[in-house]
């Protein structure tokens, strides 16, 4: 009989980079619903966080390294699972952890799962992730975004952690695809829902329809394009359908950027450099 996973066996890992003042709205409920909260700060923290363990980096080490630092802290402290967050996510209920762990404890083979993931509602657009109509409690997904991902600490260690040379974009996708190539699964909950705010989304309304350009800086276009090309190099044959969807999303983003964003030249140059460098990564 498998051992039941409890909130005390879960460490929450939150990556921070110049967070807004209200991000304690995430940390307070996490500290009440888990064994420990570890904050990995890629920028100086100006807000006291008395209920959290702080790992302060001297510079921005990137999302992947920060996640590995937080997970290593969870590993050394003896936690079984780590629940990953970024600073732009908010819980929608005090029962978040209990609901999530019901799925983990009910799933027949949790040792085969690389990531249990929550559903997300994008606060800027109001859109919510959907799954198969036949899904009742959970369904399998090729990948998960970082925030709201429950990761087995032992499996994270066995897989070699997050890929630090990716730095920021597609770090989560690469981890999931690598785990999938080794026979592990990504399981998405139907019931567990988080509110996620992409801070750069700004609506443009045309003929009653809203479009949401990302307004990310040129370096994000570099990393996003470079890492997507690198994923093509590694998973073109095994994950062609998923990569096609990502390519289509990338093309829509670049079209919106060209129509409505500033510094288009710098962003296009960043994307081109990323495309070239991705073949060497």
What report would you give on this structure?
The protein is an alpha/beta fold and 281 residues long. Helices cover 38% and strands 22% of the residues. The chain has 8 helices and 11 strands. The strands form 2 sheets. Strands 1, 2, 3, 4, 5, 6, 7, 8 and 9 form a 9-stranded mixed sheet that branches. A two-stranded antiparallel ribbon has the order 10-11. Strand 1, helix 1 and strand 2 form a beta-alpha-beta unit. It is globular. The termini are far apart.
* H and E order: EHEEHEEHEEEHHEEEHHH
Strand content: 15-25%
Report the average pLDDT across residues: 92
Shape: globular
Distance between the termini: 44 Å
Secondary-structure content class: alpha/beta
Tally of DSSP β-strands: 11
Rounded to the nearest angstrom, the radius of gyration is 19 Å
Topology:
Elements (H helix, E strand, L loop, with lengths): L9 E7 L7 H10 L2 E6 L11 E4 L6 H14 L4 E6 L2 E3 L4 H11 L6 E10 L15 E3 L8 E4 H7 L11 H11 L3 E12 L7 E3 L2 E3 L6 H18 L4 H21 L3 H15 L3
């Amino acid at each position: 009989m498998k051992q039941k996973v409890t909130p005390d066996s879960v460490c929450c890992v939150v990556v921070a980079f110049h967070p807004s003042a209200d991000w304690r709205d995430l940390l307070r409920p996490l500290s009440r619903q888990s064994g420990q909260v570890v904050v990995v700060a890629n920028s100086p923290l100006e807000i006291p966080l008395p209920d959290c363990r702080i790992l302060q980096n001297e510079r921005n080490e990137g999302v992947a390294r920060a996640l590995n630092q937080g997970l290593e802290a969870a590993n050394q402290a003896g936690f079984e699972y780590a629940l990953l967050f970024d600073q732009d996510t908010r819980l929608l209920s005090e029962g978040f952890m209990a609901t999530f762990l019901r799925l983990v404890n009910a799933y027949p083979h949790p040792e085969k799962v690389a990531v249990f993931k929550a559903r997300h509602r994008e606060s800027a657009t109001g859109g919510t992730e959907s799954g198969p109509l036949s899904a009742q409690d959970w369904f399998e997904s090729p990948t998960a975004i970082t925030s709201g991902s429950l990761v087995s600490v032992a499996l994270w260690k066995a897989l070699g952690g997050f890929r630090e040379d990716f730095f920021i974009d597609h770090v989560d996708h690469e981890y999931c695809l690598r785990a999938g190539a080794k026979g592990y699964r990504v399981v998405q909950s139907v019931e567990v829902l988080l509110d996620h705010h992409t801070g750069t989304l700004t609506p443009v309304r045309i003929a009653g329809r809203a479009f949401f350009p990302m307004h990310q800086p040129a370096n994000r276009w570099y990393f996003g394009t470079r890492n997507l090309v690198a994923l093509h190099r590694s998973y073109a044959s095994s994950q062609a359908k998923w990569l096609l969807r990502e390519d289509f999303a990338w093309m829509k983003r670049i079209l919106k950027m060209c129509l409505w964003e500033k510094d288009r030249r710098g962003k296009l140059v960043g994307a081109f450099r990323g495309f070239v460098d991705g073949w060497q990564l």
